[in-house]
């Protein structure tokens, strides 16, 4: 068996798991659906005994995920939320403190808040861009610090290296949710994080047909502990999902680079449009996190939000006029999506909490897909042309 290792993410993402079939010489690995495995003899287990604990299809995608993030081990889970839940299970006990971003993913907020209310651990939500609030990390000595950058939906950028340094001084484990950029555009472990977590449902799979998650660790011992717990609590990913995810990852690099190129054009177009009050895209110089994103990321990504100056009663007309932006939650697929933050992804937040987070009622979020940038730009231009500035 040829075990390659390349320092180029283009190669690693394409070649994961290829050419390993010794029975038929399949180039692409088969899907191993078996839930159980024969013992080769009495008291002689093989590498796998039961698919919750270990599965060859899942092994392949886990190896690829670890290589892409530069980690020593990866666990693929049934969803992004089960990956985050796994982290809480392994890292946090009653009385331990978790520090999470004030603008973290809604599902993560709900999980932390509900588990904390049951006494599983304590949680504190802070703005990690604020030096005064960051000092609370040193004072309160949290067990785990979760960073999410860029954040949703305002694309706020947090300095991973700086937060990791403070958190390590306080003895914390540093976790970065890298869902919005993928390892193509951001490498949290190289910036000082201990663990990367993903919703593979988004860019990694990229085709909006799998729900999956991943935990990738810098330390092999921590990775083994995560794998033990993932089997223990039963959150490991399914064989078919593993296969689809590995297949999606093969095109990750060109997908995200092309989507990003189009997103940059759309951000510029919207930024100059008289009906758009404000565009949130780290690639724009006007974005508060632009310089930091330039330093920390290998690109600005393909997600952006904008405030649209039309009446709320006109939102439906605008959305119906779009042909190539589908009104749906989620992100990172090959198809372009639009979502209205207040009624969709952040509907669970109170109106007051949204105001405090700077999320206006006229905020829309785009996940820019792989369609022709000309089509996407003219689609937006046409839909906007129905309204007067
Ligand atoms: C979608 C998402 C999650 C949750 O992942 P699921 O696969 O939907 O469970 C976590 N974090 C971020 C940033 C996300 O966008």
Automatic annotation (TrEMBL):
Cofactors: pyridoxal 5'-phosphate
One annotated GO molecular function: cystathionine gamma-synthase activity
Signal peptide: none
Family per similarity comment: Belongs to the trans-sulfuration enzymes family.
Sections of the chain in a coiled coil: none
Alphabetical UniProt keywords: Pyridoxal phosphate, Transferase
Cross-referenced InterPro entries: Cys/Met-Metab_PyrdxlP-dep_enz, Cys_met_metab_PP, O_succ_thio_ly, PyrdxlP-dep_Trfase, PyrdxlP-dep_Trfase_major, PyrdxlP-dep_Trfase_small
Protein name as annotated: Cystathionine gamma-synthase
One Pfam family it belongs to: Cys_Met_Meta_PP
Assigned EC number: 2.5.1.48
Database matches in PANTHER family: CYSTATHIONINE GAMMA-SYNTHASE, TRANS-SULFURATION ENZYME FAMILY MEMBER
